[in-house]
Amino acid sequence: MNKCADVQIRPVLITDQGDSFTHLHIDASAHFFPTFEHKYLLMKKIILLFLLAASAINLYAQGPVPNGGFENWSTFSTGTPTPYSYEMPDNWKTTDSISVANSNGPVHSVSKEASTVQSGTYSMRLQSWSYLIGGFPFINGIPGCATNGDVIVNTSTASIIPVSGSPDTVRHAQLSGFYRYSAGGTGNDSGSIEVCLLQRNTISGNRDTVAMGQTYFHNQGSYTNFSVTINQFGSVALNPDSMLIWIQSSPREPLGSGQTGSILLIDSLSFSGVIGINELQNAVNAMQVYPVPAIDVLNVDVDLKNPIRISYEVIDINGKQKLSHSMDAAKTKIDVSSLSNGNYFVNLLDENGNRLSSGKFTINK
Hints:
By secondary structure, the chain is mainly beta. It has helices spanning 39-49, 96-102; strands at 13-17, 20-24, 73-78, 84-89, 93-94, 110-113, 123-127, 129-133, 136-142, 145-147, 150-154, 159-163, 166-167, 172-182, 191-200, 207-217, 220-229, 231-232, 242-248, 263-274, 284-290, 297-304, 310-316, 321-327, 331-335, 342-350, 355-363.
């Protein structure tokens, strides 16, 4: 994963001017009408159009994950002379404005999902799509993207880089949530979520990444709990001044390497723990718990950075231990048939009993 970069909070895009780069301001309602005669220039312009999704809204809402349950949405419009309507989750920016404008309305790369949710009324649906020229696919597998920050589009490398974020001074240790994923096309695709904790460098004026984490999403037919360990950079845990989350339904690098039709559902994002407090850092890259809800068997998949002895414990919402056992493999099945209906946590522990990571699940028989 690329380290998170720094840029002004308002939407910008980068175009190449010889060997230099120039920041440009754009109108989020602009509509682009490509023709077959300009294919060479179109490849560059299509990449730049991604930034149309970064409609100007104030992202500096309070809370550890702004609108992390995706319950609140606002309506916008894009395109001229005919405007097309789309929605964005409050305190987030998405790529939906460009996919809607390019398709003349029907293709939503990010949308509000009401029929399949993990909790509450809505979840967020991200779908990979094809950029059309004259009604025909020109670039396939462009990811549906959502971020609480902004984005830099680098035309020289055809890359999309998340930047900025929202104010946050907590050294979050984990980002957790729930996902479902269905790969489109050939089925060879994956989504992902990235999180960075940032701190303004008083000398350079840039934001330095002080901690970060990432996990990938593969085919999963039911909502599955995931937990991303946020690993600090260096030996000293530094306090951030902002945090950045980036979610995508397919890889953003290289652009168009995903599969059109891949769908990622995300719900119930939350932070837990503090770096340097009651947790062994840099031990767990990612943890997934599924299915959610569970009935008799709970699967726990763990990606360890280094081989260590680990065990698990299952606790209820009151902190009472219900189950515990050593783990001999990265993929473990836990017999939860003895548990009553309700919400539980599964904690990964090192051999000294320190918590490495945690996942939430529900029993519903």
